[in-house]
UniProtKB/TrEMBL annotation:
Keywords: Membrane, Plasmid, Transmembrane, Transmembrane helix, Transport. The keyword Transmembrane helix applies. This is MFS transporter. The chain crosses the membrane at residues 37-54, 74-92, 108-127, 133-154, 166-189, 201-222, 272-298, 310-331, 343-360, 366-387, 399-421, 433-452. It is a multi-pass membrane protein. Residues 41-457 form the Major facilitator superfamily (MFS) profile domain. It comes from Paraburkholderia sprentiae WSM5005. One of its GO terms (cellular component) is membrane. Its main location: membrane. PANTHER family: PERMEASE-RELATED, TRANSPORTER, PUTATIVE (AFU_ORTHOLOGUE AFUA_6G08340)-RELATED. The keyword RNA-binding does not apply.
Amino acid sequence: MVYSSHQFGDDTQRSSSGGHVSIPDPAAIERSAIRKVSWRLVPFVALMFFINFLDRTAISFAGPNGMSKDLGLTAAQFGLAAGVFFIGYILLEIPSNLALHKFGARRWLARIMVTWGIVALLFTWVSSLSGLYILRFLLGVAEAGFFPGAILFLSTWVPAKHRSHILALFYLAQPLTIVIGAPVAALLIDAHGLFGLAGWRIMFFGVAIPAILIGVVAWFYLTDKPSQANWLTAAERDWLTAKLEAEEHEKGGKGAPALHGNPLAALTNGRVWAFALMYFGLIYGLYALAFFLPAIIGGFETRFGTHFNVFQKGLITAIPYLPAALALYLWSRDATRRGVRSWHLSVPALIGAVSVPLALQMGSPAASIAIITLTACAIFSALPNFWALPARFLSGAAAAAGIALINTVGNVAGFVAPYLTGIGKDVSGSYQLPMLIVGAMMLMSAVLALTVGRTSPEASLAPVEAH
């Protein structure tokens, strides 16, 4: 096969006829292939994730801006409504990810997205507490499998040493959802009266439609695997396919064999469960913050005598997440350069454990938001680096089951965190006790990260280098 010099660099040799024949440079092929995957797939899947996280957390904007009042919700009822999403999500998480492995990411992720978009649209007309509970449950059923499916999909496109970087780019969508989504949600809520609907109902309508549209696009845009990608050159397809197949035989370190085709082995593996509990603590912090930060900001008026309109509250809600996006990128960049180590998880988890209870001890809104920003930076710095680890010793059907199990256990925290936070608020009258619980959960994650780091072979935590 003859490769053009502009594709793979300037390494050429003169042929017998006097012309120049290009010799393919493996390093150039690698750079080109990873760059194309980064630009072709990651932004689109990140956009899907952006819409996904916005739709599941839209209730956090609706609650303090009319929904709780119109439906007569207590803090505990709001927390249960936020958390019941994860019951349906958990029930179908593993089956959905196994279906993705069987039918392909393109069709399955597109199906998930259109389905959750339709359910999200129905929130526009919810009229009772029971109806809210039912729709939140159904939204969880519809979204089940999307996040672990997206992680699995991207993990099967890049070799291990590039994975933490790719996942970090993907994960940027989560904090940016709040940076962009909070002001957008506020603008939609401010459109109160449009079509005769309350502002919070218009907000639900506005964030649901993009899920349906992008889901349809995903069916035609995504590609299941490198060998099917006509947007890669033949050399790039061959390199990616060969490299990924070689790594399937190298996963896991000394004393830690890879788990490949047996889902049951992954579901009963001790290290998978250690990762699952670690993820539980991180997700507990994430969703306690995501679902209740707008309510905490709303409480500034009572605590400090301040007053903010809906759009100002949306902007304040977004403040912690922009530095969090920067911290996520820089921390993951360091992890990619050094190889993900246990301290890439334990250090931010420990910072989160200490900072989150302090946030409500501050004497001003600015100081409170500053500490919450530190917490958000800690949580988002840990998450993408976390997901770089399980994929190093899981593959095939075991990867689908193991990653889904980890995400399922983590999402139990998605149910428990808002519900316990709401109960704690109703019982104690403030968010101080619930935030202490958040700190304890993140401390558990920090300890587990250090424990896994000591008991796992270094090779299982370091990136697999090219041979």
